[in-house]
Amino acid sequence: GQRSTGGQTAGMGINSLVGLGVMLSPYTLDGRTTLSHLLVSLTPLTVGSPVIGKRERALTVTLAYNLHTKQVGVLFDLLKFDFYVVGSYKDYR
């Protein structure tokens, strides 16, 4: 949906999200904290936005590729809740 325009208009309140990330972990062969996983996630349903100060995510699926074992893990989150302190509607007043 439409993003915030930087004003008090929040845009669409229902969206989908795609995320990319990395994980640092101390669980390596030599015990050092280093880059361990590459992450790709898909959230098919989100309600809310940073402009209104909170967002709920439903049914997120994440693929986590372990760089050391060359295996892929699948993570599933039924619900996630995001609460925004900075970047929320409070910044537009």
Describe this structure in words.
- The protein has 93 residues and is an all-beta fold.
- The protein has one domain (14-92).
- 0% of the residues lie in helices and 57% in strands.
- The chain has strands at 14-25, 34-49, 54-66, 72-83.
- The two termini are 23 Å apart.
Backbone structural class: mainly beta
Shape: elongated
Strand content: over 45%
* Helix content, binned percent: under 10%
Put simply, the count of helices is: 0
Q: Please give the number of β-strands.
A: 4
Q: Give the tally of structural domains.
A: 1
Order of helices and strands: EEEE
Low-confidence stretches: none
Rounded to the nearest angstrom, the radius of gyration is: 17 Å
Q: Strands of the biggest beta sheet: in what spatial order?
A: 1-2-3-4
Round the mean pLDDT to the nearest integer and report it: 82
Assembly of the depicted chains:
single chain
Largest sheet: 4 strands, antiparallel
For the record, give the distance between the C-alpha atoms at the N and C termini, rounded to a whole number.
23 Å
